[in-house]
Amino acid sequence: MTKIKLTIDKKEVKVEQGSTLLEAAKKVGIDIPTLCYMHLDDINVNHKPGGCRVCSVEVEGRRNLAPACATEVADGMVIRTNSVRVLNARRTVLSLILSDHPKDCLSCAKSGNCDLQNMAIRFGIRETPYEGCEISRYKEDFSPSIIRDMDKCIVCRRCETMCNDFQTVGALSAINRGFNSVVAPAFQMDLEHSTCTYCGQCVAVCPTGALTEVDHTNKLIRDLANPNKTVIVQTAPAVRAALGECFDLKPGTLVTGKMTAALRELGFNYVFDTDFAADLTIMEEGTEILNRLSKHLAGDKSVKLPILTSCCPGWVNFFEQQFTDLLDVPSTAKSPQQMFGAIAKTYFADKINVKREDLVVVSIMPCLAKKYECQREEFKVDGNPDVDYSISTRELAALIKRANIDFMSLSDEEFDAPMGESTGAGVIFGTTGGVIEAAVRTAYELHTNKKLPKVDFHELRGMQGIRQATIDFDGFPVNIGIAHGLGHARELLEKIQKGESEFHAIEIMACPGGCIGGGGQPLHHADLSILAKRMEAIYKEDGNKVLRKSHENPSIIKLYEEFLGKPMSEKAHHLLHTNYINRSKKVIYIQ
Amino acid sequence: MTRVKNLDDLRKMRDQLQSKTNLRDKSEKPEDMVQIKVAMATCCIASGSRDTMNFFVDELEKRNIEAIVTQTGCMGYCYAEPTVEVTVPEKEPIIFGNVDTPKADEIIEKYIKGGEMVDGIIPVNYQKID
Amino acid sequence: MAYKMHLLVCGGTGCQASESAALVENLKKELEEQQLDSFAQVVMTGCFGFCEKGPIVKIIPDNTFYTQVSPENAGVIVSEHVAKGRRVDYLLYKNPEDNTPIAESKNMNFYKKQIRIALRNCGIINPENIEEYIARDGYLALGKVFQELGAENTIQVLKDAGLRGRGGAGFPTAIKWELTRKNEADQKYVVCNADEGDPGAFMDRSILEGDPHAVIEAMAINGYCVGATKGLIYIRAEYPLAIQRLKIALNQARNYGLLGNDILGSGFDFDIELRYGAGAFVCGEETALIHSMEGFRGEPTLKPPYPAQSGYLNKPTNVNNVETLANVPVIINKGPEWFNQIGTEKSKGTKVFALAGKVNNVGLIEVPMGITLREVIFEIGGGIKNNKKFKAVQTGGPSGGCLTEKDLDISIDYENLIAAGSMMGSGGMIVMDEDDCMVDVAKYFLDFTVEESCGKCAPCRIGNKRLYELLDKITKGKGTKQDLEILQNLGGVIKDTSLCGLGQSSPNPVLSTMRNFEDEYHAHVHDHKCPSGVCKSLMTYEIIPDNCVGCTACVRVCPVGAITGNKKEVHLISAELCIKCGACMERCKFDAITVN
Questions:
Q1: Catalytic residue, candidates A160, A320, A373, A507
Q2: Domain with A140 in it
Q3: Same-domain status, A472 and A492
Q4: Is residue A463 classed as helix, strand or coil in its secondary structure?
Q5: Minimal Cα distance from B8: which residue of C?
Q6: Same domain? A496 vs A564
Q7: Domain C540-595 bears CATH identifier 3.30.70.20
Q8: Contacts of range C101-104, beta carbons closer than 8 Å, 24 or more positions apart
Q9: Rounded distance, CA A483 to CA A48, Å?
Q10: Could A97 and C462 be called an inter-chain contact, meaning their C-beta atoms sit closer than 8 Å?
Q11: Which residue of C has its CA nearest to A175?
């Protein structure tokens, strides 16, 4: 690789050809401010539209300033990143952006966690110039998962890149021109009428309060205070690997015990674990995989392969809208969240003798699509949802702080029985490749009647967007595919459509890294190394477990004995399986 | 369909087509070529001036003489119609009277081509007409 | 046999709007009725440029140039001029100086200093007939490129000629071609940029309407030189006539084998597709244009990569402006030496301008580089309308700058205009007189850029809006000294930080008027006065008591009841209620109302 020599603020620096000025500056400890720029190395997202111009720098011999994020280095370049000209330009541009942004930071969901606010602090903005000029005004858009408040949009277009390039969902793009430019669904439709899957990746990268989650914390506080309600909670595996970040712990710190303690402190009557339901999912989905596989191999043409996992609600929304010809391909198993709800409001409610309507099931999820999923009509009984509502990891952290709980001083506590017991297989649902690994662990033993020689399937793990592995099921090779990110999922799905897929089973997760990178997680601020650390934590938790195969979970065994019978039984089918609906979207034009 | 096969083909085609439009170019620089003005008032037309004009235009082209034939109003020599003013480059304009087609032929062959004088010149104190 | 007389009628959009199509029909009918239809031919041509006086009819061979001809005039033209050779005097152009008729265009000031290269066929041939183009050496250059020159020599010819891009920036055309040629790819594209967006500009439209084959031929040459087999013309959908003529021309070229496979036996395949733009100004910027053609939002991306490296569908793409292309075939036919003796040292050839504003002769002109603004405005343009005083000329479209009296003698070329604080742009030229308020003019141009900004980068998206708002404030008399400082700084930063040429030049009208007409800004800000009397908010209508006879005429005509006063008493205008419509002043017979 050719090295390029240049001078930045009188410091000499040598970098590889093709590097940007921003990268070169970083090498010599110069941190050029950026706002719209977003580089997500691990998932190959490189968003540098050169839109905000906050990173402008002076290049000797060039007529105008250059955006450092997108200007390539050249030999002998002389760069000034802090000259009066540069600082004045940056400050002016930032003032312009602020002039088209509401000043109600105090009551903004992003306050304290806002890139624009931080930039204003960094530039020592003490007054808002261009006062009295109008701000572009847009209608607020409330969906079950995501709120769009486009008055706060600074048109950095990171969300657009995630939605279009990474997820290939195509719900968001810039519309209108000039001062009225805004990122929105086509024809300024509401998100609900668009092809949005509620994956929340737009929210995860939004630098301001323009895209935020629907907040259920106040509702939860009221329910917890209601003496007539029994409020139980389930926590998804990825939450415990990320929640600590909200309390200034290093990324990858597991806080399972503290989280359980905090939830109990908040007043939940029972603190359960979604991992339990994940084990249950494996029992159903694993059995389904084996059934479909053996029928298919026996020549039954009505059974299609590959079978696809179905625990990710963003993914389910995606294929229900965009791959309506493949509705019979995914597993019919409900997601762990919904399995949990269905069992909680039947089996468990009976056990503690609480009426369905007096039981409130809350889920803590790394995910925004879960907020929508629990509202689906098919997951309600007489209008009463199996899971009442879902709150995100971020909301939980806020709630803990609001309740005056000193998170760091809490002692570790255990989940309640019976729906708090789980295996390592349930834990790894939180990361890409985990669901299929958990399924393999169980399916192998059920199929071969032999004990697995080794539980860890490293060939299924990693951060690559599309992965594949062949697992030897005692002489029968099972081809497994894994995709995270809906764009990668699309590639695999299009192969299935063309009949070119060689896989028997495929795991799909909508978010980068799986649930650990979900739209409800603490913000990564474009640092994806955080995801790798969360992933490590998940596998660590798995390794620490005594039981690591779903079918060995005693509470699950008991559930089948006492209530469900066996996997795929009629009762199981009724409670734990679902069907998919063609939800392809027509354009609805709303003025 | 007239498909042009190569450059020569194109050149040939251009040469053929040129006659249809080159009038528009010639008219820009009339002083470089033979200019013929045919008087074309009602009385002139009655005496056959349009035939004369057509003859000039067609024959000059056939005989490969760079010329431009325009018409003009009454020249005032109604006794000698059709009247025609001929200007050969770098020579004074000459007016001919009673120019029927044989006369026109003579003007082309003798005066324009050969530079010889032809009968029928209307001399006097004639002034050029614009 | 060939026609003895040709009646050339302008069929450009402007003249068609003044019923030139009906005029053509009437002329044909009259010729038939008077049995002159084998003698004379009616030809609908492209634009003559003298749009101020359209529709134009030019009669060949005597070169009579009729102006403002209506369909009803067909009869007299045929019966008088065609039949009897008598010019119809009242349809001739009148010299504005002494009102004498001028029969031939070459004697008109409007045409005297023009040299028509890009417009060489406009107003001469029928753009819908490929044979007329071929008759005038059409496609000969293409054949020469194939058989005699070859790609590299052709590029060299353009380099020697010194042809520079006519779209605005003036980048050397040959270098752009060379870069695309050098980039290897399985597919390359050449694109004709016909997204003409400057308000009031119609250079490209006129060329496409008047001489579409010139552009098609040049694109084929372009394709051959850079190794592209596909050409695209990006044209705004609001140019229906140009599109129609292009479609006809493309079909004819295909039928004649001048597009398609194995053109002129060269083995070179080339064809052209039309792509319609929705009329966004920013799509004239080549990267934005390419995105728009790809079906994406029309907004620019950073260069590099240049289109020559990665353009349409990420393939090497060579984008050239219509006028640039129109120059190419002539340069090849007549040689680089012929071309580069026209113009100045660094800017060769001619430039087409759309001359507009307060000049007598509004229209499309093609002048040699190096001509002075004075010649253009006062000779070709015939001076300022109604004998008013010249104040400023805006070149370079909405992103250019305002030049003043002191700049009138600079010779027009790329470098000189930039040195003077403006630019060549694509050829808009708007002349302003003493009645124009320069703050208002700057506001007008800003209004356009605010509307046309794509919204991608913050300085252009928000900054221009703020500039506009500040100017608006000033024209309303509410500006402060600080506002002037903010304007200056903001304008500079927008230029310095914007992503593409639009934002990098959009503050020019403000900055150049602030520089050249500082006193006008001060008058608005400090004295709350608009010296030109344009900014309504700064005007007050008052009654001169000595002249007022108390007739109540003004009281009755005032639409908002702002004037009070009884009969035979001096009236009074309430400054608060007055909406400055001027109705009172118009009505007063005693000159008793003044405006300050």
A1: A373
A2: 100-125+135-213
A3: yes
A4: coil
A5: C143
A6: yes
A7: yes
A8: C102/C65, C103/B130, C103/C63, C103/C64, C103/C65, C104/C63, C104/C64, C104/C65
A9: 25
A10: yes
A11: C297
Structural domain contains residue A590: no
* Domain assignment of residue A581, yes or no: no
Q: Which of A311, A312, A367, A374 is catalytic?
A: A311
Instruction: Using the CB atoms, write b or e for A380-415: b if 16+ within 10 Å.
Output: eeeeebbbbbbbbbbbbbbbbeeeebebeebeebeb
User: Do A143 and A173 share a domain, yes or no?
Assistant: yes
Instruction: Please state whether C99 falls in left (phi above 0), alpha (psi between -120 and 50) or beta.
Output: left
Cβ contacts (< 8 Å) between A20 and chain C: which residues? none
Q: Report yes or no: A90 and A73 within 8 Å, Cβ to Cβ.
A: no
Verify that A328 and A200 share a domain, yes or no.
no
CA distance C321 to chain A (A): 24
**Partners of residue C425 on adjacent β-strands:** none
The domain tally of chain A equals 3
Q: Do B and A make contact, counting contact as 3+ CB pairs within 8 angstroms?
A: no
Shared-domain flag, residues A243 and A186: no
**Judgement on whether residues A16 and A113 belong to the same structural domain of the protein:** no
- Record: contact C125-B45, CB cut-off 8 A: no
**Closest CA–CA distance from residue C247 to any residue of chain B (Å):** 18
Torsion angle of alpha carbons A92, A93, A99, A105, nearest 10°?
-100
CB–CB of A57/A80 below 8 Å? yes
Task: Report yes or no: C253 and C259 within 8 Å, Cβ to Cβ.
Answer: yes
What kind of architecture, by CATH, is found in domain C5-108? 3-Layer(aba) Sandwich (3.40)
Chain C CB within 8 Å of residue A62 CB? no
Q: Is A36 a catalytic residue?
A: no
Is B38 close to C139, i.e. CB distance below 8 A? no
Chain C residues close to B72, C-beta within 8 Å: 62, 85
Token couple for C555: 């009281």
- pLDDT class of A188 with cuts at 50, 70, 90: confident
Same domain for A73 and A118: no
What is the CATH T-level fold of the domain C438-526, as seen in this structure? de novo design (two linked rop proteins) (1.20.1440)
**pTM to 2 decimal places:** 0.90
Neighbours of chain C (3+ CB pairs under 8 A): A, B
Catalytic annotation present for A533: no
Q: What is the full per-residue pLDDT of chain C (596 aa) written as tens digits? A: 578 899 999 999 989 999 999 999 999 999 999 999 988 999 999 999 998 888 999 998 888 999 999 999 999 999 989 988 888 999 999 888 788 899 888 888 999 999 999 999 999 999 999 999 999 999 999 999 999 999 999 999 999 999 999 988 899 999 999 999 999 999 999 999 999 988 888 999 999 999 999 999 999 999 999 999 999 999 999 999 999 999 999 999 999 999 999 999 999 999 999 999 998 999 999 999 999 999 999 999 998 899 999 999 999 999 999 999 999 999 999 999 999 999 999 999 999 999 999 999 999 999 999 999 999 999 999 999 999 999 999 998 888 899 999 999 999 999 999 999 889 988 999 999 999 999 999 999 999 999 999 999 999 999 999 999 999 999 999 999 999 999 999 999 999 999 999 999 999 999 999 999 999 999 999 999 999 989 988 888 989 999 999 999 999 999 999 999 889 999 999 988 998 888 999 899 999 998 87
Task: With CB atoms and an 8 Å threshold, state whether A155 touches C466.
Answer: no
- Which chains would you list as touching B if contact means 3+ CB atom pairs under 8 Å? C
Indicate which residue of A16, A60, A378, A561 is catalytic.
Answer: A378
Tokens, residue A56 = 């402008």
Domain assignments of chain C as residue spans, ordered by start:
5-108, 131-339, 350-433, 438-526, 540-595
Which DSSP letter does residue C378 get?
I
Tokens 């660590």 locate to: A540
In C, minimum Cα distance to A51 occurs at C457
Residue C61: is the preceding peptide bond cis (ω within 30°)?
Answer: yes
Level-2 CATH architecture, domain C350-433: Roll (3.10)
- CATH number for the domain including A88? 3.10.20.740
Q: Which domains, from first to last, does chain B contain?
A: 30-130 (3.40.30.10)
Residues A113 and A68 in one domain: no
